[in-house]
Amino acid sequence: MLVSDWMVTDPVTVTPDTKLFEAQKTMRDGGFRRLPVVAQGRLVGIVTDRDLREAAPSKATSLSVFELNYLLSRLTVKDVMKTAVLTVSPDDPIERAALLMSEHKISGLPVLDGDAVVGILTITDLLQAFVSMLDLREGGRVAAGV
């Protein structure tokens, strides 16, 4: 099986200049935990829900709500994104993607065709592939005692 068989095509992306508030809203509204960051058609990073949470100020801050909102409104994705991004291609075997995710303890990989982001593959997609490979919906190997 190939990555292209299981990836989500045309993923939602953001640019480095996207405001953090907007990226948070995009993730919340779409139910995403990560967004590829694209500039001039090329992948330049990835931002996760964890990156956004870590950028939020501590509740122990002495700043006022107005000061906090002002500071947060100035932060952009480029201020918190990861620039070292592991990727796969649509033609890679799904097993390679699973191994990368396992070895690097990550839960999603942008899928690149050349420089273009054409998809994203997540742990959920891998689980669906695993269920399909084992034919679990039809009783599969588990029911047969294999």
Structure description:
The mean pLDDT is 86. The protein starts with 7 loop residues before the first strand and ends with a helix. Helices cover 37% and strands 19% of the residues. The chain is globular and about 55 Å long. It has helices at residues 20-30, 49-55, 65-74, 94-104, 123-133, 140-143; strands at residues 8-9, 34-39, 42-48, 108-113, 116-122. It is of the alpha+beta class. It has one domain (3-143): CBS-domain (Roll). It has a three-stranded antiparallel β-sheet with strand order 1-5-4. Strands 2-3 form a two-stranded antiparallel ribbon. 21% of the residues are buried. The protein has six helices and five strands; from the N terminus they run βαββαααββαα.
Which class best fits the helix and strand makeup? alpha+beta
CATH architecture: Roll
- Order of strands in the sheet with the most strands? 1-5-4
Please indicate the count of domains.
1
As a percent range, the share of helical residues equals 25-40%
